[in-house]
Amino acid sequence: MIANRQIAFAARPEGRPAAETFIMREAPMPVPEAGEILCRNLWLSVDPYLRLKMHDRESYTPPLQIGETIPGRSVAEVIEARAHGFSKGDLVAVSGGWQDFAAVPAKAAKLIPLRTPHPTAYLGPLGMTGETAYAGLLQIGKPKPGETLVVSAAAGAVGGLVGQIGKVKGCRVVGIAGSQEKCRFVTEELKFDACVNYRTPDFARALKKACPNGVDIYFDNVGGPVTETVLPLVNTFARMPLCGLISQYDGQQAGDPRALAELMRWILVRRITIRGFIVYDIAPNFPDFEGEMTKWLDEGLVVSREHLSEGFDNIVPAFLGLLGGENTGKSIVRIAEPSSLL
Ligand code: NDP
Question: Domain limits at 12?
């Protein structure tokens, strides 16, 4: 019998998760029902929102339960199809979870076109990551040529795409990232106009210098002290797509007790529009997303870097590394090769 390796939630972490937060186990191979496809996961996405799901409190998705297999997007190969439109050997993007095999509803599977040179793009720019950047920036940020767009976690998966889309739309784009090396990547490879390292004592002054005309759009991926530093620079009628708050996900920061009052003051004084969004709420408003992003990728207007880890044993380290800022670009773990390559 072929076993299905799985990584499950073992214990709710206090603060930063660790190896003990997870347990590896083996389960029987799932059996697909009518309307389902049986998939072998090849590449897994690791994502910050999973940290939010580890708290036992209200969020936009239910909390993880102890013993639950960790969910997540994957690019997988169909090994048995009990649904029309799919065949053995197809590559699909699915919610396959952190495991070798998954039986998933075919209607929730995205068929990856044959001969796609980079199937993992369906976890990055052509997947949820790209939809988040595209829909969040266009619908809430409403970029206009000549405006200044500031993006936090700029060397990460979503942030790197947001800034490049902002460049396509004619904005001056300024990134914020956690090291000089990441800032170099953001300006040299992603072609942002500037990037500022938030871990230097000079951060506030350097950010102000990089935004001589103030900030019209702040695409926030991190919250906390980075956002507090951006706020005084925003212009009247600025827009803030609130995408993520990764600096807060561990839930242990004491925080400045005046921060909320300051935030409310800036919202009023500068008439800022802040809107939180979750990708699945707004992505359906953009049916042209895949076509337009594919075109930008083909034309080299958008480039995508992957932070690739190898092997099932590296899923948990890749996730912990993501929370610690070890990744540059989209964090992906390869756990198997497509059978055509075996
Ligand atoms: P990234 O690839 O951007 O990786 C996370 C990055 O966050 C790290 O590389 C690190 O970069 C940065 N980071 C970690 N801790 C801190 C901190 N304390 N302060 C500032 N930066 C920090 O991940 P994603 O692109 O997948 O996600 C980015 C954000 O978007 C997350 O907040 C995520 O939850 C959110 N998201 C929201 C979605 C939605 O629908 N609203 C959908 C997808 C993602 P550095 O070295 O620069 O610190």
Answer: 3-124+305-341
Q: Ligand 1 center to residue 306 CA distance, Å?
A: 14
Separation of 188 CA from ligand 1 center, angstroms?
A: 20
pLDDT tens digits, residue range 61-71? 999 999 999 99
Span 74-109, pLDDT tens digits: 999 999 999 999 999 999 999 999 999 999 999 999
Give me the sign of the Cα torsion angle 249, 254, 258, 261.
positive
Instruction: For residue 48, report the distance from its CA to the centre of ligand 1, in Å.
Output: 6
Atom of ligand 1 nearest to the CA of 48: 34
Cα–Cα distance list, 32 to 39, 83, 196, 267 (Å): 9, 10, 49, 51
Residue 37 belongs to a domain with what CATH number?
3.90.180.10
Query: Is 185 domain-assigned?
Result: yes
| pLDDT band at 2; cut points 50, 70, 90 | confident
Asked if residue 36 lies in contact with residue 92, where contact means CB atoms within 8 angstroms, the answer is no
Contact (Cβ atoms closer than 8 angstroms) between residue 42 and residue 336:
yes
Statement to judge: residues 119 and 136 lie in one domain: no
User: Which of 196, 222, 307 has most ligand 1 atoms within 8 Å of its beta carbon, as the pocket-test mutant?
Assistant: 222
